[in-house]
Design a protein that fits this description.
Number of strands: 0
Number of helices: 15
Number of domains: 1
Distance between the termini: 36 Å
Order of helices and strands: HHHHHHHHHHHHHHH
Shape: globular
Structural class: mainly alpha
Strand content: under 5%
């Protein structure tokens, strides 16, 4: 007797399957590529935070991080941010500027939780390997070697450059927006978001501590001291973020700043010398201030180059698919 499953599907059933696939693709491509990446990151992060909130665990606290919000509080915040994100995307898609900025807010939310993801997934720590690679390449550990140049003016300058990471790349996007360069503005935002996400994956897959935690203090010599008390105080601020214990590889400070240099050269040439000057200061400063191994910097630059090269063709391909599926009536079969 012939197995009923061997009979070909009826035209109605085949059409229903094609219609279901088309509806799913229409839903996916109604989002932007960075929004899909955001949702994909949300799943493992929510899983990790929920598990830690219920069962305990996560990265051990230090005296500096003792008052950091617990996993449940951060899970609620994460869920709220994703709810707002979905509301804007699905209900208020015409809020284009808000829609452009929300992935950056999610990036900040992800960053605040990465230390628990690192502990939850438990990938091997590569700090000692980074140390050995630095020494193999340069013959010395660069962060220790750089201390021979330590002086208050340099310490203040490099500290100032380091904090400009939070100013110059967003300022580039804002200037492009105010100039009315819509596509350049979007390429800048999407490229930076993808660079950040590549780095976040690196933090979880390849956890590593920075030189200032991995190398004994006496190896560096005297503590770094500047002329401006506020800048001296700011150098202690990263210690209050648990991620800084294991989130060194790759260097996103360097990666995003190099990406901003490339984008400024391409889209806002007059801004390029400004971002180049302070960007080079930031890269040198990550070593001088003992924040990163040089191999971290190489990896950050690689992440920047990947994001820079892949974002334009991905955006073009994605937009073509989005227009294709948006033009199909509900229930249309996928061609």
């Amino acid at each position: 007797m012939t197995d009923p499953a061997s009979y070909p599907a009826s035209p109605a059933a085949a059409s229903a399957r094609r219609g279901g696939r088309s509806a799913l693709l229409r839903l996916i491509f109604s989002f932007r590529p960075e929004e899909i990446a955001t949702l994909l990151l949300f799943v493992p992060m929510a899983w990790a935070l929920a598990s830690i909130a219920i069962l305990g665990g996560g990265m051990p606290r230090t005296e500096a991080t003792w008052n950091y919000p617990d996993a449940f509080t951060r899970l609620v915040t994460l869920a709220a941010s994703v709810t707002i994100f979905l509301y804007v995307v699905r209900v208020k898609p015409t809020w284009t500027f808000a829609r452009d900025l929300i992935p950056f807010l999610f990036c900040a939310n992800v960053y605040a939780n990465l230390h628990d993801m690192i502990a939850f997934f438990g990938a091997p720590d590569i700090t000692s390997w980074l140390f050995r690679m630095d020494v193999a390449i340069f013959g010395v550990e660069p962060t220790i070697w750089a201390q021979r140049f330590a002086q208050p003016v340099l310490t203040d300058f490099f500290t100032f450059c380091y904090w400009l990471f939070y100013v110059l790349p967003p300022l580039l996007g804002l200037l492009l927006y105010l100039k009315g360069e819509g596509r350049a503005f979007r390429m800048t935002l999407v490229s930076i978001v993808f660079c950040l996400y590549l780095g976040y994956v690196g933090y979880v897959a390849l956890p590593a501590g920075p030189p200032r935690y991995a190398i004994p203090e006496h190896a560096f010599g005297p503590p770094l001291v500047g002329l401006i008390a506020a800048l001296d105080a700011s150098r202690a601020a990263p210690a209050a973020l648990p991620l800084t214990m294991k989130g060194a590889f790759p260097s996103l400070h360097c990666g995003v700043m190099v990406l901003a240099m490339l984008l400024a050269w391409r889209h806002l040439r007059w801004f390029f010398p400004i971002i180049l000057f302070f960007g080079v200061g930031l890269i040198l400063g990550t070593v001088y201030l003992r924040h990163h191994w040089v191999v971290d910097i190489f990896a950050g630059i690689l992440a920047a180059l990947v994001a820079d090269r892949l974002t334009p063709p991905l955006e073009t391909w994605w937009q073509a698919r989005a227009q294709r599926y948006a033009a199909q009536p509900n229930g249309a079969a996928d061609a």
